[in-house]
Write a structure and sequence with these properties.
384 residues, alpha/beta, Immunoglobulin-like, Rossmann fold, 2 domains, eight-stranded mixed β-sheet, five-stranded antiparallel β-sheet, 26% strand
């Protein structure tokens, strides 16, 4: 593929850049029924080392690939070619002498800014056999209007945080009450309102309100890790605050709590312990291996280590089956997939109404943003 591109003999770097932009980056060439060669191209400047990091692997974040880009003689370009499964979708960044940047020939897509900073601003590669995410494509092409911002002051937590609310498209009678989803790790540019709008316009889901809850970075790890006080804030402060301001249903079956990673853990644990408030839980790559006493190490100490059952799984095993519905997805190539499969086995065995699926990727917003449409279809499918 790269040889073919250079064979077209662009006479200047500018012409090569234009040609690369027309072809699309990274460059992909099929080598077997289920594998491709993927060539990444960078233009880093002189004396700059370039490496690739992808959101696939054991690290929660970008996992480094242990090969450097190589210069293309007579050009300012450096390249790296890897053989990959042809069904992958993944976020990635280049590291130029240790500094993280997106692919200059494949800019980050819409909705690429995340509440967790280390994931933000990444490029996304979609290989030829990757499962399509049509509702994300529709959302990117036609984003929702700006969300309404407010501040929630919590007496239970002694703090405050920003809340963003997005109403569905259309007009509703004065006495109507709407289902709604509360999404943890919210930002004003989150994809959820736009994905919701695409599904509502298509008549596939009931019009529902999207509520985006800020998780301040300094408190995120404390708040989302099966924290009873934070869950009580959601139930006893956020829900009344929302219902006082918006025409929202009081039926727990019309309420979903959603999150990704730590947020998915919190959504599942909170719904399990407060089913009268949240009748639906949306868990996207939940960190369900979490237990406060779980530590990792190496050496002789491992011979004495006793591994506890993770908190969410242990609580599901111990409790009576709660009247909640659970949507759960996870990447088959992320380190937490074993715990997600364990949680799904427990939920299924205990008779929960649950849908579990795995995607061809890692711990990655590139998948979560689009599969959120499947979660909304699971929770609020149109009755028409």
């Amino acid at each position: 593929m790269l040889d073919d591109l250079f064979a077209e003999k662009p006479s200047t770097p500018e012409e090569f850049r234009r040609l690369l932009e027309q072809r699309g980056a990274p460059l992909v060439e099929r080598v077997s029924a289920d594998e491709v060669e993927v060539t990444f191209v960078d233009e880093p400047g002189d004396d700059t080392t370039v490496t690739l990091s992808v959101v696939i692997g054991p690290r929660i974040g970008f996992n480094p690939i242990d090969r450097e880009f190589t210069p293309v003689a007579g050009t300012p370009f450096h390249v790296l070619t890897l053989r990959m499964r042809s069904d992958l979708r993944f976020s990635y960044v280049f590291r130029r002498s240790g500094r993280q940047v997106p692919d200059p020939f494949n800019p980050p897509p819409r909705f690429s800014e995340c509440s967790v900073e280390r994931f933000s601003g990444a490029s996304v590669a979609v290989l030829p056999d990757a499962a399509p995410l049509p509702w994300l494509d529709e959302a990117e092409a036609r984003p929702a209007p700006a969300v309404e911002a407010a501040v929630l002051a919590s007496e239970l937590l002694g703090d405050e945080r920003r809340i963003w609310v997005s109403m569905p498209p259309g007009k509703f009678p004065d006495q109507s009450v709407l289902p709604f989803v509360i999404h943890l790790d919210g930002t004003p540019g989150h994809s959820a309102p736009s994905v919701r709008d695409a599904l509502v316009r298509a008549g596939l889901i009931r019009p529902c309100v999207v509520v985006l809850v800020e998780q301040p970075a300094a408190r995120r790890d404390h708040e989302l890790l099966c924290n009873p006080a934070f869950s009580r804030m959601l139930v006893h402060e956020l829900l009344p605050w929302l219902r006082h301001r918006y025409p929202l249903s009081r039926n727990p079956g019309d309420v979903a709590l959603a999150g990704e990673s730590f947020g998915g853990l919190c959504a599942g644990w909170t719904a399990l312990h407060h089913p009268a408030a949240f009748g639906n839980a949306i868990l996207q790559s939940p960190s369900c291996g979490y237990h406060p006493d779980l530590t990792w190490g190496t050496g002789a100490g491992e011979l004495l280590r006793r591994t506890p059952v993770p908190t969410l799984i242990a609580d599901c095993l111990a409790a009576e089956t709660a009247p909640i519905r659970v949507f759960h997805d996870a990447g088959e190539l992320e380190g937490s997939s074993t715990h997600s499969r364990w949680l799904d086995h427990v939920l299924t065995t205990k008779g929960y109404d649950t849908l579990y699926r795995e995607f061809a990727g890692g711990h990655d917003y590139a998948w979560w943003r689009g599969l959120f449409a499947d979660a909304l279809l699971w929770c609020f499918r149109s009755e028409a």
